[in-house]
Amino acid sequence: MSAEPSSKPQPVRPALFLGHRGTRIYAPENTFEAFDIALEHGCDGFEFDVRRTADGNAAVCHDAHFHHLKVDQHTLDHLRVLHPLPTLGEVLERYGNRAYINIELKDAGLEAETIRLLDEFPAERVLVTSFLPEVISDLASLRGSRDVPLGFICRNLKLLDAWRTLPISHAIINHAIFSKTLQRELQAAGKQLFVWTINDAAEVERFRELSVDGIISDDTKLSRSVSAAKAQAVPIVD
Known about the structure:
By secondary structure, the protein is α/β, with parallel strands linked by helices. Helix content is 31%, strand content 21%.
């Protein structure tokens, strides 16, 4: 006699949902307003970009220029005369105990300052990422025994294999180069997989059903579909 199919619920690991630069739709990107809205919309947290100012501060800014001034050629105070500009330390202090913090380092030279700020403002859930392999390697050397997860961001298939040799726990992959083969390889290596930038509800659902670990989106309201899935998920009991 054949065994009856198990009725035991299958484990579910719902994807994290992160606002891209906070949000790029409902507020100016990489601002406190954008970060607040991401959380109000139900996101688990948000991704944001960090650049080095001329005086060594870690400024939250995506582009190399801030209001037509090159960030690395001006002091933080000078840049702030033009417009409010958050710093990494301010973001960690304000959100570190209530949001998943995904820091993207755009420049080399901020590795030591990032580790110092994470010591000063410990975050409950944090991930430090970069497109730059040398930045990831430097962070790994500087973090020592600290629990600072690192991630490699990639949008180019030619550069993708770098994840195999970098000291990372996460791969943050542009959705256009996602494949199930890559997902299986990352899972086998014990790495988490985040995809970006997903701004379509059907695509959010597709990647959720593919069981990726994180979804990054400009449209923070799409987090509600993931939140609903989490509410219905069967918890995993270790």
